[in-house]
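hi support,

uploading two proteins for the ticket. first:
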Amino acid sequence: MSDQAELLRIEGIRKTFPGVVALDSVDFDLRRGEVHVLLGENGAGKSTLIKMLSGAYRPDSGRIVVDGEEVRIHGAQDAERLGIATIYQEFNLVPDLTVAENIFLGRQPRRFGLVDRKKMESDAEELLKRVGVRVSPRAKVRELGIARLQMVEIAKALSLDARVLIMDEPTAVLTSEEVDKLFAIVRTLREDGVGIVFITHHLDEIAALGDRVTVLRDGRSVRQVPASTPEDELVRLMVGRSIEQQYPRQRPDAGPPLLSVKGLTRDGVFHDVSFEVRAGEVVGLAGLVGAGRTEVARAVFGADPYDAGSVGVRGERLPRHDVNAAMGAGIGLVPEDRKGQGLLLDASVRENLGLVTLRSATRAGLVDLKGQARDAARIAEQLKVRMAGLGQHVRTLSGGNQQKVVIGKWLLADVKVLILDEPTRGIDVGAKVEIYQLINELTASGHAVLMISSDLPEVLGMSDRVLVMAQGRIAGELTADEATQDAVMALAVSTAAPAEEAREAHEAHEALDTNVRNEEEAEGSRGH
């Protein structure tokens, strides 16, 4: 490693925002042909650091050195000129443009002064093949699911021929097969001499892919260690303490059924889905991407329609496609897309925490702002939301703290059934344990939790029962003792169609779901 040329160095970088020191004397370097992992809790400063390298922020002090020369990065074009490309955790794509148009946005190939669409689409197709995703370069981005959006982002970054590639949580929404493909791409890039800054909360990925690790804590670079460093030590460096139990599930005795789903069917998406969730219980919903888990959750919450079946809470049947009725019955949903569906990004922490209880806090047309502020402060303290104050815009919080706000608004509403869709995606190990403890508190007080997660160890560690979906159906149910990774995966693929048919069905489901959501948004029916 020592003979590799240095591509990038950061010295003594400091960045402050009103009331917050985001980075304080941070040092970091990247060498040619290495994967350097940037590790830290949510709010540790990782996002601020990479936004400086991409030109979104400018440092207050310190130096950025590229190829031995100090540089100033004032915007994305400066970063691209220096050979720096960034793949953000939150997608940076234009929904109404095609895949090819997004990949080459602002850099379209031209012929006789006009955009050469044939070449653009041909080049995009080659890049898409390189990242192993089957999607037409002429498809509109809004028609794609989250996993395919991530691969389009990677294809876009590869089109820049970057020498420094920054990847912010690139595996958060990918299946294990897609992760393997991504790792193969990263290893090829490393062999080609590209330096890669890799941000992940999945500690098992560090030793599998990384060379070195720089740990950030509270805006400071606390240590640089080899990627082979044991996970327990990485956790200690990251959070400043040891975490004895990664999945601290406490299992109270289950009470009566709170949520009952019977024969739920939506043509082409899910079929004859039936299950119960009891008071004090965490039921995990597992399955491959495209199995229909999120679609079922949205139908239960009333956000999406269904064709047959019923949803009941404490024995009372709910009307179909009625978010207000679901909320009134005590159902809450923490969606997988927290920014797009769970938050008002330009509103404050206080305003977001009070969204669900706004109606109940209103008397004679006036909102009890003082009471809402008091309740918001209590929940923010309980969840340990890192913020400058309740007036801070949610957009400026880290991903983990945004997730805490989404969960917090339902805690204020005292929901009886909380549906958690990918509750810890993009969240560090310390914050994960805090959310798991919160789940324990909810079930200990008699609430019911339905948890959807693509993180199989999380499902196994925190669920009292596991329901496994495959191609829109419940393929089986496992008790906590029966649930193993092998058992879950066997059920997850038990009714799978041939690969091509399954892929086409998945794409059709995603397109249908997107169209339904667009129609609902046009009607103003989004209730959460």
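and the second one:
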Amino acid sequence: MRKIFWLLALLPLGVFSQTKSITLEDIYKKGTFRGEFVPAVFDSTQKEPELRLEGLKDENGKPFGQPEDRISSPANKNIWLFKKGTEPIYRRSSKSFIYLYDAGTGSLKKLEESKVLHPTFSPDGSRIAYVKDNNLYIRELSTDKVTAVTTDGKWNHVINGNCDWVYEEEFEFTRAYDWSPKGNYLAYYRFDESTVKEYNMTIYDDAHNKDYRYKYPKAGDGNSTVDIFIYDVAKGSKAKAQYEQGDIYIPRIKWTQDDNSLVVFWMNRHQNHLKLLATHAADGSARLLYEEKNKYYVEINDDWWFLKDGKNFLFTSEMDGYRHLYLYSLDGNSKTQVTRGKFDVTEVNAVDETGKRIFFTMANPRPMDRNVFVTDFTGKKTYPVTSGEGWHRVEFNADFTRFFDFRSDLNNPQTVTLNKLVSDKKKGLTVVTEKVINESARLKSRLAEYGYGKAEFIRIPNSKGDTLNGWMLKPAGFDPGKKYPVLFCNYGGPGSQQVANRFGAVSAWHQLLAQKGFIVVSVDNTGTGFRGEEFKKKTYLQLGKFEIEDQIDAAKQLSNLPFVDKENIGHWGWSYGGFMSSLAITKGNEVFSAAVAVAPVTNWRYYDNIYTERYMRTPQENAKGYDDNSPVNFTSRIKGKYLIIHGTADDNVHFQNATQMITALVKSNIDFESAYYPNKNHGIGGMADNTTFHLWSKMTNWILENMGNENTQKPANGQANQPKGF
């Protein structure tokens, strides 16, 4: 049976009628293959209030221009907050100058002289909360009175209302405060990070450089002490939320519909025990609302809804082995599993509380597909909203009677349709397509003009008895009588997915490499997502082991194909993918001849504790799990060619990972190539200073030079300086 998987791989795809060659300039400078943005506008007569800013001047009398972002008041359509001079901090955080604008009077005034974070209106629009210099403030709009909710904030010591680095990165939020439903209370985090270890990096300039230091707890290190306070706006007093202290996390706080009830999410350090504590706003006392334990770890996300009826909450959990929806009552008397089956719910699109319906997306009919379904609160009446193989993304109108469907697949850009939901007591729910909004005609024409190849899905058996999902893109003008080099493009981290039936999973860069004569492959290894909990969490306590064994198995399978040059099989990856590429050239030395690792983790001891310990526990508990799969420990095995690239100001995966890997390479007397980008973070990007183009040119030329054969093109001389010739 397994041999059948390769029948399609042996068939030629035909001759490509290519008229233009894809260039790096097309991809990274011109935006040649950029798709169209199609807004989901249900009624063209309904528009946001038009803001006329002509003639508006800032505090210095200069034309204000257009704001970089705008926040509307929930209570007054004329009142807005405008952002200017936005400055990124880390992945999700930024600070800006904030202006309060009254469209009715035309007045514009600056909120503070310095930049602030997280400005939000209170629910009634009468106040604005924001964070400045690690302290939380409230401004009364009617009087301009500013109240300092906290005063002890200090860089690298105490943070109020904003996350520390590791919470922002790994629990995926940055604004660490929230108004109660009626605005009577403001709940906020206080991080005491004074004892957390610092990481420092040099910011290079034209003088004596700068030393940047921030708190970054690596695996096994101590964390910030986190307290949750609930501030009574009218009284100016605060209550401290009561929960078990110690080595714990508070990954979320959420208000119920009750203005007096805050839910504090408590989690142990191993992240396998979650408790939701219903906390009284006035005094911080708490009762247990929900508890979940897992033999591996509990996923943290924002899929928690405290319904308007004030009696129930909806959430997702993997407690039955797949990610499904559950509806529980706040009093604990009712517990309903709403969805079932061997498919993962990937998103909750909308909750129709009036109709008691939930619209959700599922990885169905295959893990690489996405389809939308609707079910009632009991889970007994479930209907498909979209169907078939492909990738559907939907947006509903306010009363859930119509929706836009954005559908694409591996080889076809999105088609956008406007659809109507029709309910019938006998037939149930049916979908009627009202009209096709956009079929990406311009992009499709461009793809044909440049001879885009057609990728195909493949299924590969590994040595453990599982079957792995993958895709393959063959070279332009593929000839089964020739032998082509293969490049694996892989991420492979926990819960991730690259083998997806959506347009863009195979990128323009992949297409460029195929035009140059490469077979490009992506395989989702053990540990990736949307195939159930056991497949995803099998890598627990030994990150890298099963993942790289799967990549090696896949490379061996491919090497047996008659059109594959088994002497030239390479691996490319970024971040976790760079970790995988570094393992490929070390542990996979018998099959992988070259690897490009961008911003790689080279030893999990160097990475942050929340992410790493979720999957590995601490180095003190699991030293073997860390050491047995760290590329720095296996450099002596390298036989092929290796390129390692990193940004020197990477606050996420530290440049330290590259320096320690290079130290190990030198000690093992292994030749290698490296590139570093000064003052660049984990994304190593930049259009104005040419960084993005230079990086992708560097990698592409290196791959062509070090993995090519007689059937591939070679890079032009001085290619990085002559992009037009590429």
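thanks. also noticed: The mean pLDDT is 94.
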